[in-house]
Amino acid sequence: MSNTPVVTRFAPSPTGYLHIGGARTALFNWLYARGRGGKFLLRIEDTDRERSTAAATAKIYDAMAWLGLDYDGEAISQYERAPRHVEVAEAMLAAGTAYKCFSTQDEIEAFREAARAEGKSTLFQSPWRDADASTHPDAPFVVRVKAPRDGATVIEDRVQGDVTFRNDQLDDMVCLRSDGSPTYMLAVVVDDHDMGVTHVIRGDDHLNNAARQKMIYDAMGWDVPVFAHIPLIHGPDGKKLSKRHGAAGVEEYREMGYPASAMRNYLVRLGWSHGDDEVFTDAQAKEWFDLDGIGKGAARLDFKKLDHVSGQHIAMAGADELILQVQDYLDATSQEKLTDAQVEGLRAALDFVRTGAKTLPQLIEKSRFILTSRPIERDEKAQAALDDVSRGILTELTPQLQTVSWNREELETILNALAEAHGIKFGKLAAPLRAALAGRAASPSVFDMMLVLGRDETIARLNEASQ
Asked: How far is residue 95's CA from residue 92's CA, in Å, rounded to a whole number?
């Protein structure tokens, strides 16, 4: 299989939002394929008709698109492939590697009760395993795969190492139900085979499934893919990640304002490492990512690390990319998109408003001065900074700004001289200036704001605040 082009897949069930753990699984598969010039496929495992919904499927597509995890070809519906799954079950029946089992649920339960009473294994041993077809009744049946009865099944796992399962612990699993519908365990194997999947990278909660699924590969004489079962993500408390830890779905991180590039970077570092590298680009991740770098232990979600990585990506993003991310965040949270004028203002202010911003909402808040228009809405602290004395000083400043050269050095000279003339420190003057220009007590540097706003808008805002 070494010369075969790499084919990976992500196979979510559309029964709710895309879990952050599922997103990481998709990311690992995407990186492994993309870094090797292979294919990354998407399969929607929608066989559970009661729980699978079109809305949940749409959420998966949206989350994948936001994360930038593009897949090759069309997404495949597992449910629509049911006839092919049945065909494989019938092929195993014909080959004698599977059999019809007519045992009822009551009979199976009676077998288990008797086994418990005798202290024996409750693993069901069907009396129909080797029965002659002439003895088959005209009654409902399931199709079971013949599990090996002795020896061991070894799963050669690229993350967990060789994992051995005693064959006497494997039951003859059902692959077709009595209504003729295929089970998940059969469908997964058939789909992976038909899609040409070479590497199955998935959560280690599927590790036990691998031993049972291998029975179908062996029964059909198919190549077994490379397995890589990755540890699950735990919350900060070390317990399996759930909604009680906060955001569990991908869309929640989008709505909290983490850039997609930061999420990719952070998620790939959850359980995988490349030396001490913490912050890196997609190109680096594709080049570096390998199954050998995945740890065996569960990874813990850490919001402080996510904030750090997010801040680094906001700092290093190109202006166009960052503005697109801001617009996407506003769209995801049902806020009005930026106008062309606001985009240009934000672009002019990006170099200083992005400094220290860990999320897109923080970036937007720091940019509020350029995104707002007169009349300026002021928060409580800003309003308090505009007392009568401060208003008088602003009135005094306005005519001086009419003629000054509009550069940082000249503005600093005028403002410092004004503060000195009133016997106050510059910080005391900066508070009403922030209130006038931004409507906030906390804002970027007054000089940065004045330079971006320009002379006319700065003077207009000072006039408005000094009324």
From this structure: 5
